[in-house]
Amino acid sequence: MSPHRNRVTPTGEIAAFPLRGAWTGNRGVIHRGRDIVRFHASDLWITCALQFRGRWREQWLPNRWTHLYFHDEAVSFAAGHRPCAECRRGSYLSYRDAWAAAAGHRPSATDMNRQLHRERLFRGTHRRRFHQLPWATLPTGTFVLLDHTPALIVDDHLSPWTPTGYQGRMPLPTSGTATVITPPSTITVLKAGYPVQIDPAARER
After folding, report:
1. What is the tens place of the pLDDT at every residue in 151-189?
2. Which of the listed residues 27, 50, 96, 155 has the most CB atoms within 10 Å of its CB?
3. Where are the domains of the chain?
């Protein structure tokens, strides 16, 4: 059976590929039938647990939020999502508190949603926004673009991402500027110590 078009890439695109997701999540109701017909429905983009309190809900229900899937949490962060405040309460609080440590004040969920939306998309469009930042300032868990290929910073190396998973290792530059996919606010969260989940393949030699 062919995979549905409900997997999310690090750049935020929704595509069909067989790579399994460690997380689900949503951007509101963006499907009709079994087809994705919108890029997002609001500025609320969240990452959810695959299982929560034994709940189960059929996918593709009319007028119900659209299930999306992410290879790992680093991919979901790069795509512009944040942890869900209900099914991932502990992760949400850790994310919010790390944001607060960097910003100097505790944001509301609405504050974070609006800020992330400004950072992931150009205003009034569905066009993805990237950021030029110094390599030396980027923590583990940050996604960058290398010749149009997403790559994850993991400790002292880069791990290119493909629709079949992480593939190999590349040297991590220590000077110059990177084209960064992960929103800057989430990068500050990572710098503040948020323990982002990364697929083990990204660390393999």
Report:
1. 999 999 999 999 999 999 999 998 999 999 999 999 999
2. 27
3. 7-203
